[in-house]
């Protein structure tokens, strides 16, 4: 096959109208590269805010969107040693982040932002920019691991590893929070989850959340969460996805020496009202920005997924590649639960 269907983000001025589906050549495989037939992709909040002009990290437009993808190797370059034809693979978010802490080179290698991503039928990647997919997952499930899963794994294990018996608080029911809930339960931790709807609360219960707080009716959820911890000492790890709208409450329930992993800002809120950095001193905690994670961390995470037979929480609605713009609108309207996936034929 010489041509393929692919989406392109042309600019960041026209909202989702800046997303265009067209024909493009199938990329050529270099000596260190792997050609992948992409079978599935999944969306992140980041994908939505790139065409809206709200993304704070490096971009190089026009670009093929999507960081998360899974599929099958169809060709390998002459110097490739990590993969062979027929291998099932999943993409690494920051292609240059192989191990160790984040650095400027790694931060400038994000799929679907600086490097062409996964909303297409075929992609060429350097062999270091892929991992073997977990043996227990299908392509739709594997495609959800690249960003959300690795971000939550990094939050729980990248700085101060989660221990059995500790308490984790997850906010909402997006991809990062759902993975954190599953990873925390597999590790023997107690999980407190916040949500805004009784329907989502029921789903959280089924996934194993020990305590659920409705943050709309219980606006002082930080104090409530602290009261649910042993001796009311507070939460060990907080998956902070709300940003200015939620950080104030997170600081109310964090334990001494606990970690608040700041991952997103979906909760909005007025930045002028957000806590100042000196509040980490009065609360004796670490507030840490998490930008996905390294290949080494991803490989550790995949081992845990296989050993514990963890299956990602996937929204019931699956879109096709042609329907990607509809998927963007569906996710922007917050109709999804867990990860939103796209099947690529």
From TrEMBL:
Entry protein name: NAD(P)-binding protein
GO molecular function: oxidoreductase activity
InterPro entries the UniProt entry points to: ADH-like_C (IPR013149), ADH-like_N (IPR013154), ER (IPR020843), GroES-like_sf (IPR011032), NAD(P)-bd_dom_sf (IPR036291), Zinc_ADH-like (IPR052711)
Pfam families listed in its UniProt record: ADH_N (PF08240), ADH_zinc_N (PF00107)
Taxonomic classification: Eukaryota, Fungi, Dikarya, Ascomycota, Pezizomycotina
All copies of domain Enoyl reductase (ER), residue ranges: 14-342
